[in-house]
Amino acid sequence: MAKEGFDYIIVGAGTAGCLLANRLTADPTKRVLLIEAGGKDDYHWVHIPVGYLHCIGNPRTDWCFNTEPEPGLNGRSLRYPRGKVLGGSSSINGMIYMRGQSRDYEHWADVTGDDTWRWERVLRAFRRHEHHWRLDKPETAPEGFADLHGHRGEWRVEQQRLRWPILDAFAAACSQAGIPATGDFNAGNNEGVGYFEVNQKKGLRWNTAKAFLRPTTFGRPNFELWTGAQVRRLRLMRDDATGLRCSGVEVMTPHGIEQPWLNSGGEVILTAGAVGSPQILQLSGLGPAELLQGLGIKVEQDLPGVGANLQDHLQVRAVYKVQGGKTLNLRSASLFGKAMIGLEYALRRSGPMSMAPSQLGAFTRSSPDKVWPDLQYHVQPLSLDAFGEPLHGFDAFTASVCNLKPTSRGTIHITSPDAGVAPAIRPNYLATEVDRQVAVESLKLTRRIVAQPALAAFKPEEYRPGPLVQTDEALAKVAGDIATTIFHPVGTCRMGRKDDPGAVLDSRLRVRGVSGLRVADASVMPTITSGNTNSPTLMIAEKLAGWLAG
């Protein structure tokens, strides 16, 4: 395959990798190789919004990881979806456009000692690739909106194409419970309730492969894409003058093992995600020395933070039966109902097939002493026992709520020197008393919202966790029974100050002690953002692209 060296080798054609490939190939003098272990995004369910139901758990599009049994979840193991296709997790995720809160980035700047991560600076990167629907007609946008949002970028943000009366009622109940309505979750403080905006275009999923690879990047002669190509390890060289340096990668392709190399001054950029990037580093001898020695891997650089600091959003799923209001449970139960749903989508690109997994959102506080919102709701007009199982045979809605700033920390560590063996994923959910108490308070808050007059006409009846679960102790235990990941793993190659022993990267995303090697994906976050993590990952890639372009 490779007959010449590359100036940049990007490992992982997911959210960050697609943007970086676009930005770096804009310089015609730079040769760029983008490597993706999965396949092309030509599966039709990738592009139909409701197709996440067919993509998650499907080995064609998902790595199909599972966590180790979790003590905080009463011994349960959770499915841990990660995209295995062009576009990465942007091809199978919930499509929600969410930046987080300004405080997230102020904290990153503090812990890295680099003001480039402050809110006002990252806002420029968010705006550069954003294409917001409100600015299609700027005269109708709220005052100051264009200062916060972009319109000429590749990353399309649209309104959802359907509403549900039960969700409108839940939003009204939130307002009655003291959570104000909001028209913009992305202005720096996302407190409030409203419908999520989504990364869709005319009723189709808008993944990063569409946004950043097609058509511009694919047409550039200095760009090369390998799919079905799994990186086994990084190629590292050491000499007295330059120390440890990354010179390329070793890749298993359909044609056998390939070893693309870097031109002088080139860089390898890992964009394989919070699971894949630490796995590749560890396979290459960059990680905790004790772990690597135990697996017979030569320690090239002892970096104890590789695979540590895993953070994720754990959602506690409360389910309420309702009367007199349509939900997806019964609407999709009959062949006629399914046929009508399909016809609506075919004719209008609207209806349930255009749905993001969650439509209504709310951000609020678990207790009055919180300065910032620390809870996020994802509310859905449907219910089921577990993801991948059939919808319930009664009308119901689900109010899932997650702790935005968990204090529990987990790990992702390889268990074999073989790149084909999945790493052990231990999120360590609900490991701290603080996280358990937030889970308890979030269930209590959900009950207060549902008890408001706005929902009374639907006669909501608590199905999960159930009205008999009342004490804090019982609520904490049931949270472990009904909680599940909302698929936001971050932090496993975190950046930090030079004197921070747990930092894997410096503030410009360079791997400690290794020249020619950076990481640019959700794994670099020191702490998790206050909301969905896909768009912050794009921002990280945008920042790096700007630095590399000079």
TrEMBL record:
<keyword id="KW-0285">Flavoprotein</keyword>
<feature type="domain" description="Glucose-methanol-choline oxidoreductase N-terminal">
    <location>
        <begin position="83"/>
        <end position="106"/>
    </location>
</feature>
<dbReference type="InterPro" id="IPR012132">
    <property type="entry name" value="GMC_OxRdtase"/>
</dbReference>
<dbReference type="InterPro" id="IPR007867">
    <property type="entry name" value="GMC_OxRtase_C"/>
</dbReference>
<feature type="domain" description="Glucose-methanol-choline oxidoreductase N-terminal">
    <location>
        <begin position="273"/>
        <end position="287"/>
    </location>
</feature>
<dbReference type="InterPro" id="IPR000172">
    <property type="entry name" value="GMC_OxRdtase_N"/>
</dbReference>
<keyword id="KW-0274">FAD</keyword>
<comment type="similarity">
    <text>Belongs to the GMC oxidoreductase family.</text>
</comment>
<dbReference type="Pfam" id="PF00732">
    <property type="entry name" value="GMC_oxred_N"/>
</dbReference>
<dbReference type="Pfam" id="PF05199">
    <property type="entry name" value="GMC_oxred_C"/>
</dbReference>
<dbReference type="InterPro" id="IPR036188">
    <property type="entry name" value="FAD/NAD-bd_sf"/>
</dbReference>
<protein>
    <submittedName>
        <fullName>GMC family oxidoreductase</fullName>
    </submittedName>
</protein>
